[in-house]
């Protein structure tokens, strides 16, 4: 297979059977944001390969955004559990895909401010985040038929735990994606029209490569939820068996019967309209149904605590998929993300 040029280098052999782990080495001195202390050093991006004969190849990754922790914990748990002998084919694992952001506990890279999920297809000689995106799209995706990218809500959002696929114009491919949601087996699944990052997100890279993509949103709020981790760990194990990457089931826990929700367009989310920032008091919870015209929260004003609070009103019917975490809220802040039942293309 012909490989595109890259300045990232590694001693991990992705072409050999067995278990291999090490680092993708991202050189620090070759980009315009490097400082005088970079020298000829590199940032290490952990990579693991589990390979055993012929079969499908899947990329399993977390740390696309550095402060989304649940997926990183799930992947590290799986690294302790999976062996090459369990696999028929290959699993390539990036536990901290945007390693500089992971190390800094930030959504984006401290090296260049780059959001990995907004930088595909990247550039081989670009800024650090562009170089990582380019390596994933040009050197890993050509090997893979499946990508599983574990996200959560980060510091500012808490999600109802969901597995996620994007709609496809190809009915057969989309039917396979829905089957993957059922195999993953979360109590709730989310269908999106596209990533918020559009074609510059990993979903866009997967579409260009013809690779199946499944992601998650696992809680958030700069924490790690025990139940979210458990659900996702067993979901990934079921999924590996479902796509033919293991001859035997890797978990005895059956999938839940999943409720599929279609995330509404962004203009139908619930936003604060108060021109004075205050403390947001939610009146509904994750997973709760709301209706158009319902008061779903209040903004209380600490500068004038005797004032009546400003109501926050939903303009659409739906189910609460995600909520804002920071209490200090004002005009333009999204306080709830909504979904509606998926009904054959609705």
The CATH architecture assignment of the largest domain turns out to be: 3-Layer(aba) Sandwich
Main sheet overview: 5 strands, mixed, barrel
Mean pLDDT: 94
- Just give the CATH class of the largest domain: Alpha Beta
Strand segment tally: 18
Can you tell me the CATH superfamily of the largest domain? Answer: Zn peptidases
Shape type: globular
Question: Can you tell me about this structure?
Answer:
The chain is α+β, with helices and mostly antiparallel strands and 346 residues long. The protein has two domains: 9-262, 3-Layer(aba) Sandwich (Aminopeptidase); 266-339, RNA polymerase II/Efflux pump adaptor protein, barrel-sandwich hybrid domain (OB fold (Dihydrolipoamide Acetyltransferase, E2P), Beta Barrel). It contains six helices and 18 strands. The protein has helices at 69-81, 99-104, 128-140, 171-184, 202-209, 226-242, and strands spanning 9-10, 18-27, 42-52, 57-62, 89-94, 146-151, 157-166, 188-192, 212-220, 259-263, 270-271, 278-282, 289-290, 295-300, 310-313, 318-324, 328-329, 334-341. The strands form two sheets. It has a five-stranded mixed barrel with strand order 7-8-10-18-16. A four-stranded antiparallel β-sheet has the order 15-14-12-17, with no helix packed on it. Helix 1 (69-81) packs across helix 6. The longest helix is centred in the C-terminal third of the chain and has 17 residues, at 226-242. The protein is globular and about 70 Å long. The model has no long low-confidence stretch (mean pLDDT 94).
Which terms would index this structure?
alpha+beta, Aminopeptidase, four-stranded antiparallel sheet, OB fold (Dihydrolipoamide Acetyltransferase, E2P), 6 helices, globular, five-stranded mixed barrel, 346 residues
């Amino acid at each position: 297979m012909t490989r595109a040029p890259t300045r990232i280098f590694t001693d991990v052999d992705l072409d050999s059977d067995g278990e291999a782990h090490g680092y993708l080495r991202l050189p620090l001195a070759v980009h315009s944001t490097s400082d005088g202390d970079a020298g000829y050093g590199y940032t290490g991006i952990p990579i693991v390969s589990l390979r055993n004969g012929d079969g499908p190849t899947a990329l399993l990754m977390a740390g696309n955004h550095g402060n989304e922790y649940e997926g990183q914990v799930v992947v590290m748990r799986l690294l302790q559990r999976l062996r090459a002998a369990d696999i028929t084919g290959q699993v390539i694992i990036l536990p901290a895909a945007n390693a500089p952001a992971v190390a800094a506990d930030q959504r984006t890279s401290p090296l260049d401010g780059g959001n990995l999920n907004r930088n595909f297809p990247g550039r081989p000689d670009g800024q650090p985040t562009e170089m990582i995106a380019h390596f994933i799209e040009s050197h890993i995706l050509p090997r893979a038929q499946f990508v599983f990218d574990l996200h959560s809500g980060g510091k500012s959002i808490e999600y109802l735990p969901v597995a996620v696929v994007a709609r496809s114009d190809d009915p057969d491919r989309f039917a396979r994606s829905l089957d993957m949601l059922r195999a993953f087996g979360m109590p709730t699944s989310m269908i999106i029209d596209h990533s918020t990052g559009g074609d510059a997100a990993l979903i866009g890279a997967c579409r260009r490569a013809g690779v199946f993509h499944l992601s998650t949103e696992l809680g958030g709020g700069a924490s790690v939820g025990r139940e979210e981790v458990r659900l996702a760990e067993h979901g990934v194990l079921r999924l590996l068996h479902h796509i033919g990457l293991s001859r035997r089931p890797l978990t005895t826990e059956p999938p839940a019967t999943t409720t599929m929700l279609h995330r509404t367009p962004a203009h139908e989310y619930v936003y604060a309209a108060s021109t004075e920032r205050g403390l947001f008091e939610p009146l509904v919870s994750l997973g709760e149904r709301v209706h158009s015209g319902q008061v779903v929260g209040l903004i209380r004003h600490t500068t004038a605590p005797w004032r009546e609070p400003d109501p926050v009103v939903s303009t659409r019917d739906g189910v609460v998929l995600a909520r804002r975490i920071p209490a200090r809220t004002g005009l333009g802040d999204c306080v709830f993300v909504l979904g509606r039942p998926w009904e054959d293309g609705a």
